[in-house]
Design brief:
The structure is a single chain. The termini are far apart. The protein has a five-stranded mixed sheet with strand order 1-5-4-3-2. It has a single domain, classed as RelE-like (YaeB-like fold), CATH 3.30.2310.20. The protein contains three helices and five strands, in the order βααββββα.
Length: 86
């Protein structure tokens, strides 16, 4: 599976504490092995992020992504639940 990073994702990611960045890398690796692993809580979104999906990084941090028609995944946003869904 190919993962692309949207420029907004890169900007948000660069502002995160190292501890959260490391946790993201762990979850990204898990996502590459099994996108629907229970720890990720991979689920579809509605509204503003219709046609996107979300995975959990920890109890509050989320990654929003979109699956392209060729099967590649674009991570478009990373942040806390309240930052992303307001």
């Amino acid at each position: 599976m190919e993962i692309e990073l949207h420029r907004n994702f890169i900007k948000q990611y660069s502002k995160l504490p190292i501890k959260i960045q490391e946790k993201f890398k762990e979850r990204r690796n898990l996502f590459l092995i099994d996108p629907f692993h229970p720890l990720l809580n991979n689920h579809a979104l509605l509204g503003k992020y219709d046609k996107c999906r979300s995975i959990n990084i920890n109890s509050d941090m989320r990654v929003i992504f979109f699956i392209k028609s060729d099967g590649a995944v674009i991570f478009i946003a990373i942040g806390s639940h309240s930052e992303l869904y307001i």
